[in-house]
Write a structure and sequence with these properties.
Elements lengths: L4 E5 L3 E2 L12 E3 L11 E7 L11 E9 L18 E2 L6 E8 L9 E4 L11 E7 L13 E11 L1
Antiparallel strand pairs: 1-10, 2-10, 3-6, 3-9, 4-8, 4-10, 5-7, 5-9
Length: about 160
Amino acid sequence: MANEIRTKFDAWTNITITLASLAAAAARASAAITNATSRGAALILFSPETGAVAPTVDTIIELFLLRQDDSAAATGRTDGWTGADAAITISNAQLIGSLAVPNTANVNVTDVFDTSSLGPLNTDGWGIAVRNGTNQALNATEGNHKKRFQYYLPEIQ
C-alpha cells in the first residue's frame, strides 16, 4: 500500500496577550511563543469581543505576526517587540488577517487564520499583535477574548 501525506495537528494552546479594555486605535503584543519542535506553520483561532459601546460599522480589528531571531536580543525582533505581553506600535509586522466588526456591543467576531503564507515560524520564537481599529475599547473581561494557536505539518502515514 502506498504512503499518504496527511496533516498532523498539535493540541490547541492559549496565547498570552491581554485584550481586556484594549483602547481604540491601540495595539498589544503577545508574550513570545516558543517553537522548539520547529513546526512550520500554525492555525490561529482569534475571537475578540467588542466592548460595552457598539463600534462604528465597517471598522476592523487586525492581527499581525511578530518574529524574533534571537530570544536574548531585542535587535532581531519585529517592531521592537520585547517578547512580552505589552503595548506595541505596529510599523513592519506582517498582517495575518483582519476581522470586520459589526455595529454591535459585546459580540465576538471570530475567524481561524493560517500563518503558512507568511513563511516558516521562527524556532527562536514568534508572537502576535492585535490592533484595535474600532472607535471603542474592547470588552473589559479578559476571558471573553479567545486567542489560541495550533501547529500543524504534513506527515507521511
